[in-house]
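Design request, tokens follow.
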């Protein structure tokens, strides 16, 4: 019974692969439920903002995307630290699997920020401290993916990419605290653990959308991780058996 609940057994790609496959449908379903509920609250139920009008509703995409862009990078850095410390194969695979989704979230944050900034500030882009540091985050994602793709040896790529991730972590607190450290156009945080200045429906809509993005990120990362595992472990018996099973299933 003890071995059954031993999480260390899932550190191997061979055991993590089927677990990931079993979890993906649940994360997809939960993401859809949270997304529909969040959009319903944010777009139809939440009141119109007395200063920004209907244009503020872009926050239900912008803010969760911004949160996830930072959170995913921290998770990737965590995987990189584990990989460098314990030389685990799965760590590099998970970091690589998360990178495209993190880059997507950073891009969505910048795009929706520009769409929101135009009517609020009168410009699509200003060199605001938070905007600039978020742009640097996008470049870090792109740089990580380019670096790991440029190195043929997967283990060397994991180490090089892991070092880049750990160095780039310094940018995350800069993004988060930029509105406090510098005089920026960005408004301060409206959400904290003690209280919120937002209407309850606005807050719940934003939190539900954040959960939607979180569940989506996990589902897509697991899908991508399974593909990476098969590519890297194709020399092993379990991966060959899985590839052969997929080929036979496609031929039927």
């Amino acid at each position: 019974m003890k071995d059954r609940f031993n999480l260390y057994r899932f550190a191997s790609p061979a055991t993590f692969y089927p677990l990931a496959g079993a979890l993906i449908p649940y994360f997809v379903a939960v993401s859809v439920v949270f997304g529909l509920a969040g959009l319903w609250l944010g777009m139809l139920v939440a009141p119109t903002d007395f200063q920004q009008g209907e244009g503020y509703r872009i926050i239900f995409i912008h803010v969760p995307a911004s949160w996830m862009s930072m959170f995913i990078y921290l998770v990737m850095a965590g995987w990189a630290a584990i990989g460098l410390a314990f030389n685990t194969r799965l760590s590099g695979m998970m970091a690589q699997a998360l990178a495209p989704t993190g880059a997507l979230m950073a891009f969505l944050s910048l795009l929706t920020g520009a769409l929101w900034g135009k009517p609020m500030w009168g410009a699509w882009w200003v060199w605001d401290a938070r905007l600039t540091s978020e742009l640097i985050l996008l470049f870090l994602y792109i740089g990580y993916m380019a670096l790991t793709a440029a190195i043929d040896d997967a283990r060397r790529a994991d180490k090089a990419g892991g070092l880049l991730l750990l160095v780039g972590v310094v940018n995350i607190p800069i993004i988060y605290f930029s509105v406090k450290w510098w005089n920026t156009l960005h408004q301060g945080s409206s959400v904290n653990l003690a209280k919120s200045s937002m209407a309850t429906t606005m807050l719940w809509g934003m939190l539900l959308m954040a959960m939607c993005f979180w569940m989506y990120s996990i589902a897509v990362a697991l899908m991508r991780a399974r593909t990476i595992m098969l590519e890297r472990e194709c020399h092993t018996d379990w991966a060959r058996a899985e590839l052969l099973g997929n080929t036979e299933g496609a031929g039927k």
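Comment from the thread starter after seeing the answer: thanks! Helices lie at 13-45, 59-86, 89-121, 129-150, 154-168, 171-181, 200-232, 237-251.
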